[in-house]
């Protein structure tokens, strides 16, 4: 545990005076949850926008001293107490205290328990050893109140260390600590979720809600982005227009990253439902599109460039946003720029291979990128397929949708021809000879349908082979990613769990969720409430440091939306409920039971509330499903095969489904309209 940094002496010019400058925003968010129920006990979001610590810890060994509120007294230079908020929080703290003597009250922050000390963990930059602290001077004895200035808003932390700097025999009595929450700025009720999930495994429930809470901490005021400074930290950068925007992490980088949104946005839709933040994030990417049609890798104030993959994630993000909102005004406004973006990236497809030639080599953190990289080609396939849907929704009459679908089909053929390693049973990292079979490309191949999982052709066996070979990378605490050795990336593992689910390997998917996300959920040095950016296979939080990076190990983000994959996966695949057309005009109910006894989930679109659930009964021989769907919609229901028994009779809304049944090998798929439905499958 890191404890002591060199103390900052008074008069050294680093003292920040108290300043109350947190602008109030008009709260226009939901006032109550869409699906009240017992599952709301799993919500980590606080009931108020003003929170206080839950306990006081000793600095030396992080042992519990007392609950808070309670007496808190520090005496002498360097003396300190650690205040634990019990979960990830972020915002501006106000401290009321009484002093005897003169000196300064220091404040330091950290997400992980192993980094508590007189020096904040690192958020400013990779090459800075921690962020230091902020200080409140006092020159006389008496009562004082200090409020953090907005520039030093701390976006994400669980632990706040208060310490004393003095040249005298000085003491401080802490009377009150209040933190004004800085995230989800337009919501007055932080627990007013638009979605829910509940199942028979309590850890999976907590993991679902930890992803949801992470996404809340990543929805921030648009003027609180990270600025790089020589020392300390400065969160006053302009991120986008509007009042709220989704960024990649609570503590850092606090910028729009479209690749992260590939996981974060579907999870946002099924949980908190905050799509205003998504719209503002996407719009800032369009507003900063380059003259050649390319998008930046990240939004302002970073505005990093040169990433073909993140360029395509902005395009895919456009599809996801339209799917969930049917915001045709947004699409109309940006359609011309979208077409420019597609032209830019598809011009890099070269003949005779028919594969994308990657020249923008920045990516999520993988060690290699470029040439005919298979991950980038999988993403392009998905961009073309979703682009075809966007063209249809846009009302294009020029045949653009057919063109995009034809290009996607040709690309799939090229990928399977040039990148498949038949001797290994998975895709190579590139069309050239290589021994690297990456987690990202292989997960995306199944998840995006480059190798369809439900076809009886060769592609089905390839999907099953990929699902099996991905487990070669598993460790007891998660899946090591071969393209970033010694590291575990919950971002890429979010794609892997969905690949297993697409392949029908639900037990395998839940196993990985429990290994990785379950490991962090119960880690004594974690936040106990959010999902981490990444970690090493040895169990340390030194994500990426094994590959020669020289940044402070405390730089890792413990509240990173790109790791929230289980939140959408559990809703879309385990409960089985997903939208397939704008706003849920068409939808799918295709549950997977795995080793669970029951599951249910719900979410909201402007059409109304969507919810569904299932129960396995009679020792696994029978099961029942139910759904409540807005009228005027059309659903595709797939009943799973029986867990035991020979055949199962199907009863829909109290009536027998004549001449249709399920057995241990085959399920049953049929269409059904919106409304309240019950389906019972009874084994014979």
TrEMBL record:
<keyword id="KW-0378">Hydrolase</keyword>
<dbReference type="GO" id="GO:0016787">
    <property type="term" value="F:hydrolase activity"/>
</dbReference>
<feature type="signal peptide">
    <location>
        <begin position="1"/>
        <end position="18"/>
    </location>
</feature>
<dbReference type="Pfam" id="PF17389">
    <property type="entry name" value="Bac_rhamnosid6H"/>
</dbReference>
<keyword id="KW-0732">Signal</keyword>
<dbReference type="InterPro" id="IPR008928">
    <property type="entry name" value="6-hairpin_glycosidase_sf"/>
</dbReference>
<dbReference type="GO" id="GO:0005975">
    <property type="term" value="P:carbohydrate metabolic process"/>
</dbReference>
<protein>
    <submittedName>
        <fullName>Glycoside hydrolase family 78 protein</fullName>
    </submittedName>
</protein>
<dbReference type="InterPro" id="IPR035396">
    <property type="entry name" value="Bac_rhamnosid6H"/>
</dbReference>
<dbReference type="InterPro" id="IPR012341">
    <property type="entry name" value="6hp_glycosidase-like_sf"/>
</dbReference>
<feature type="domain" description="Alpha-L-rhamnosidase six-hairpin glycosidase">
    <location>
        <begin position="237"/>
        <end position="455"/>
    </location>
</feature>
């Amino acid at each position: 545990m890191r404890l002591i940094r060199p103390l900052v002496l008074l008069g050294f010019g680093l003292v920040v005076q108290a300043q109350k400058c947190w602008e109030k925003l008009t709260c226009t968010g939901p006032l109550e949850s869409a699906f009240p129920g017992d599952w709301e006990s799993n919500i980590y979001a606080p009931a108020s926008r003003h929170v206080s610590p839950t306990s006081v810890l000793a600095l030396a060994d992080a042992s519990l001293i007392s609950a808070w509120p309670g007496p808190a007294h520090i005496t002498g230079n360097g003396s300190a107490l650690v205040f634990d908020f019990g979960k990830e929080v972020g915002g501006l703290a106000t401290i009321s205290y009484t002093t005897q003597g003169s000196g300064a009250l220091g404040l330091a922050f950290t997400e992980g328990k192993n980094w508590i000390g007189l020096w904040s963990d690192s958020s400013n930059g990779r090459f800075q050893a921690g962020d230091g602290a902020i200080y409140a001077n006092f020159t006389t004895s008496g009562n004082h109140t200090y409020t953090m200035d907005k520039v030093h808003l701390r976006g994400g932390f669980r632990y706040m260390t208060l310490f004393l700097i003095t040249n005298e025999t000085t003491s401080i009595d802490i009377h009150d600590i209040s933190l004004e929450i800085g995230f989800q700025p337009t919501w007055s009720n932080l627990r007013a979720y638009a979605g829910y999930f509940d199942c028979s495994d309590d850890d999976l429930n907590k993991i679902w809600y930890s992803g949801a809470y992470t996404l809340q901490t990543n929805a921030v005021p648009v003027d609180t982005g990270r600025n790089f400074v020589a020392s300390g930290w400065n969160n006053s950068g302009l991120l986008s227009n509007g009042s709220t925007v989704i960024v990649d992490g609570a503590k850092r980088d606090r910028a729009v990253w479209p690749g992260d949104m590939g996981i974060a946005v579907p999870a946002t839709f099924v949980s908190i439902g905050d799509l205003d933040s998504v719209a503002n994030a996407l719009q800032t990417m369009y507003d900063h599109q380059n003259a050649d049609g390319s998008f930046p890798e990240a939004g302002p104030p970073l505005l990093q460039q040169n990433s073909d993959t993140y360029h395509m994630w902005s395009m895919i993000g456009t599809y996801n946003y339209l799917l969930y909102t049917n915001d045709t005004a947004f699409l109309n406004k940006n359609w011309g720029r979208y077409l420019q973006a597609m032209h830019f990236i598809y011009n890099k497809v070269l003949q005779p291979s028919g594969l994308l030639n990657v020249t923008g080599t920045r990516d999520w953190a993988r060690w290699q990128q470029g040439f005919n990289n298979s991950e980038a080609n999988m993403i392009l396939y998905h961009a073309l397929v979703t682009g075809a849907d966007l063209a249809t929704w846009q009302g294009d009459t020029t045949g653009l949708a057919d063109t995009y679908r034809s290009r996607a089909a040709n690309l799939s053929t090229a990928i399977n021809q040039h990148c498949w390693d038949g001797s290994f049973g998975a895709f190579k990292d590139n069309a050239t000879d290589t021994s690297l079979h990456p987690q990202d490309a292989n997960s995306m191949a199944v998840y995006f349908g480059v190798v369809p999982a439900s076809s009886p052709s060769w592609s089905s066996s390839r999907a099953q082979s990929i699902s099996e070979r991905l487990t070669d990378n598993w460790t007891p605490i998660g899946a090591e990613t071969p393209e970033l050795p010694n590291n575990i990336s919950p971002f890429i593992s979010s794609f892997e769990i969905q690949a297993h689910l697409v392949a029908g390997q639900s037990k395998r998917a839940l196993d990985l969720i429990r290994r990785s996300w379950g490991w962090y959920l119960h880690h004594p040095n974690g936040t106990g409430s959010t999902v981490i950016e990444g970690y090493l296979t040895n169990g340390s939080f030194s994500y990426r440091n094994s590959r020669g990076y020289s940044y402070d190990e405390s730089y890792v983000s413990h509240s990173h939306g790109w790791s929230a994959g289980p939140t959408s996966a559990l809703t879309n695949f385990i409960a089985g409920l997903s939208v397939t057309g704008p706003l849920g005009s068409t939808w799918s109910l295709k549950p997977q039971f795995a080793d669970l006894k029951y599951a249910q989930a719900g979410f909201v679109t402007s059409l109304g509330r969507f919810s569904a659930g299932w129960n396995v009964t009679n020792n696994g021989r029978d099961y029942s499903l139910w759904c409540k769907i807005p009228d005027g919609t059309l659903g595709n229901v797939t009943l799973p095969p029986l867990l035991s028994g020979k055949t199962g009779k199907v009863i829909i809304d109290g009536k027998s489904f004549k001449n249709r049944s399920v057995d241990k090998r085959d399920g049953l798929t049929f269409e059904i309209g919106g409304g309240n439905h019950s389906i019972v499958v009874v084994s014979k």
